[in-house]
Amino acid sequence: MNNEYIAQQLKEISESIFEHGSPWSTAQFLSQLMQENTEIIYQCKDGEMIGYILCQRVLDEAELLLIGVLPNYKHQGIATSLLKDMCQRLQQRNVTHLFLEVRLKNKEAIAFYDKHHFKELGIRKNYYKNPSDDAKMMQLEI
Ligand SMILES: CC(C)(COP(=O)(O)OP(=O)(O)OC[C@H]1O[C@@H](n2cnc3c(N)ncnc32)[C@H](O)[C@@H]1OP(=O)(O)O)[C@@H](O)C(=O)NCCC(=O)NCCS
């Protein structure tokens, strides 16, 4: 799969994965994929992408930009396995801290991050628009 095709697939499945539709356009996914410090792992079934995790490294830190699994494949441990594989890869690249921000109303994702021992760093008020929401900042030592 080339980057253009992967970007298209990411956009397409993200429309179904995220409550408010894909947070990124195909062009945004493509531009992220072209960056040398981007790490992506995706899961396929019968040749179709069903979930992914996307991170960006900066020295010994990384940001978890997006993680998601198609609704029909949730609660099967797919995101857990994507996160574990990503942490392994980041460790190999000498990353020690993984950061993220998540909508405070996204209880499902917060439960997932809690389960995987991410710690809260703080709340940023009105960080998100359309719809507006606060952001919970979290960190995992890997
Ligand atoms: C968050 C998300 C990635 C989890 O994916 P998943 O493959 O279903 O997660 P897993 O099956 O690996 O779940 C692992 C654990 O996370 C927790 N968890 C996951 N979904 C949960 C939910 N809806 N409610 C409560 N806990 C949940 C549970 O502790 C679960 O362990 P268990 O199955 O033993 O109870 C998925 O719900 C998703 O794609 N959400 C929409 C996209 C999104 O909001 N991404 C985060 C912001 S970028």
UniProtKB/TrEMBL annotation:
InterPro entries registered for this protein in UniProt: AcTrfase_RimI/Ard1, Acyl_CoA_acyltransferase, GNAT_dom
Keywords: Cytoplasm, Transferase
Transmembrane parts of this sequence: none
Cellular compartments annotated: Cytoplasm
Domain of life, source organism: Bacteria
Enzyme class: transferase
Gene3D superfamilies: 3.40.630.30
EC number: 2.3.1.266
PROSITE patterns: GNAT (PS51186)
N-acetyltransferase domain span: 1-142
UniProt record similarity statement: Belongs to the acetyltransferase family. RimI subfamily.
NCBIfam families registered for this protein in UniProt: rimI
Full protein name: [Ribosomal protein bS18]-alanine N-acetyltransferase
Organism: Vagococcus bubulae
